[in-house]
Predict the structure.
Amino acid sequence: MNVHDTGRVILPDFLKSCERCPARFGGVCDNIDLDALAALNRLAHHRTYEAGQVIFSESEQPDFFANILSGAVKLTKSLADGRQQIVGLQFPPDFLGRAFGQSHACFAEAATRVELCCYPADAFQALLQKYPDLEHRLLEKTLDELDAAREWMVLLGRKTAREKVASFLMLLARRTNKAACPACAEESSITFTIPLKRADIADYLGLTIETVSRQITHLRHEGIIETGAAGEVFVPDIAALQAAAGQTEGA
């Protein structure tokens, strides 16, 4: 039996909480067999991390994997001289961790307060062997991450500073409000909060802090964005921000 039936979610009473889970739309547990979802539910436990806490370390053997339920996670790689480079950001309903890997490929740190739905590593990998549709769903999520990494390579290598900053804001506009909101992508305006400090944004984009601040100021003066307290950003016209990012519609 499939979880989805003509657009409706059919779940037994003991799985009703899954209907309200942010990871149900687009997460690794989306559109999988009911038995697989029930098995995941039996394994699941929630953990909360405050901003700045390390979730797991690079080269550490994984003891759990997780769906991100709320907040933003910063992924970093260590350089030989001790410096770190931000290599990715993850939001609900992303899957956190490298299933089948012997160790984590990077550090995962809570950029904001983060809530995770966690699964013990060994038990989760056993479920992947038992339920092919769950394994297939995880593969789909992994390929999505690969596509996103390739797009980010284009951004870092070919885009101007203005396009880089606008693309970063587009990423946040798309991702921070995506969880449990399939229609958000169709909205013409959006409000979100930047989860990183300016220094981290500069690191992520390969720019200086001054350049990031200057480009945000330019976008604000042009009316493409409005900024508020505590990193809040309002985008009155998503299409205008998309054009500033050098992206075509739907990209």
